[in-house]
Amino acid sequence: MKAEIISLGASVPEKTVTNDDLSKIMDTNDEWIRTRTGIRERHISGEDIPDEEKIFSLSLDACEKALKRAEEMAEAGAARSFKGREDIELVIVATSTPDFSFPATACRLQEALGLKAAAAFDISLACTGFIAALGTADAYIRAGIYKNALVVGADALSRLTDWGDRGTAVLFGDGAGAAVLGASDGDSGVITSILHSAGSGAGALYSKAMYFNEAEKAAMAMDGKRVYDFAVRKTPEVIREALEAAEGQEVKFFVLHQANIRIIEAVAKRLKEPMEKFPHNIERYGNTSAASIPILLDELSREGKIEKGDLLCLSGFGAGLAYGAILLKY
Ligand code: UT7
Questions:
Q1: Taking the CB of residue 117, how many other CB atoms lie within 10 A of it?
Q2: What secondary structure letter does DSSP report for 173?
Q3: 280-320: per-residue pLDDT in tens?
Q4: Which of 129, 155, 184 is at the close of a domain?
Q5: Ligand 1: residues whose CB is within 6 Å?
Q6: Predicted confidence band at 49 (pLDDT cuts at 50, 70, 90)?
Q7: Which residues span the domain enclosing 107?
C-alpha cells in the first residue's frame, strides 16, 4: 500500500497586492520584483479574515473543497479506499504560522470538518512543510496504520513580514492547499519520498520571535543569497535522488515550491529539462511557503493539465535549511 492523491483543494485570501501597490509603501518597483523573482502580485489576508482565524479559515476552505471533490469521486465510484469524510483517519497540517501555539490547527480542522475518528497534528517545516506532511502521511499509510488522510500546507507569512524590509516583504503571499489521500495498491501513489535538512543554515531564514500579533518583533530575517544558492544546489540533487526510483519513466511535471522563478529556471537548467515541465504560478501568488505546492497541484488538476497516471516530481526547500522531493504517480 501507498498513499495516492484522491483530490485537491486550495484557498487564498481575496485581497491582492500588486507590485505597484508595494512600490507606494516601500522603496521598490514592479520591474525589480518581476525580473528578480517573477512575482506580479500576491494574496494577503486583511481585515476580511480575523487574526485568530487566518490559517484555520484558509485551511478549512481548502479542505472543504478537497473533501467535496473526493466525495463526488466516491459517489462516482472513483475514489477507491475513500467512501466519505468519516473515513479520514489522519489529519496533518504543515504550517509555520499557526493562529495559536496550541491546539494544533489539525485538531481545529478535525472538529470543524466533523472528522471524529482521526488522529490530528501539525508539522512545522516552513516551505518544505507540505513535502514533510505528504511523506509522513504516506509512511502511515504504507505501514498499514491508516487508509485515508487529509494533508494541508498553509501559511500566512504576511503575519511575519517586516514591511520595512524590501528584501523580504515583496516575496511572500498567504494561502492554503489540501489533499485527500487514500491507500492504493494499484499503479498510482507515492513512489518515493525523501526529506533532508542541511544540518547548517538554520540562521539563514528565521522568524525573530513567536509574537504573531506583534509583527515587528516576530518579523522574519533572511540571507536571501544564501537561501538562493542552497535552493539551486540542493533541489536538483534531491530531485535526482528521487528520480532513481522512476526506473526510466518520464516525469510529466516537476512541481517545485514557488519561491523565485529564477530558482525554478536554474533547477530546470541543472536537470537539463525544459521549462515546459516546470509549471509555475508564482506570478499570481508569490511565495506561499507550505501552501505553494498544493495550490499549484490544485490548479494543474482543475485545468486538466494532470491526469491519473501522470508521473510527477514534487520538491520543496526553505528554512531549516530543509529540502525534499516526492516522486508520485498522480
Ligand atoms: O522559500 C524559501 C524562501 N526564500 C527564498 O527563496 C529566497 C531566495 N533568494 C532570492 O530569491 C533572492 O536572493 C532575492 C529575490 C531575495 C534577492 O534577489 P538578488 O538578485 O539576490 O538581489 P540582492 O539581494 O543581491 O540585491 C540586489 C540589489 C541590492 O541593491 P544594491 O546593493 O545592488 O544597490 C538590494 O538592495 O537589489 C536591491 N533590492 C531591491 N531593490 C528594489 C533588494 N530588494 C529590493 C526590492 N526592490 N524589493
A1: 10
A2: -
A3: 999 999 999 999 999 999 999 999 999 999 999 999 999 99
A4: 184
A5: 28, 32-33, 36-37, 127, 166-167, 170, 205, 224-225, 227-228, 231, 259-260, 287, 318
A6: confident
A7: 2-184
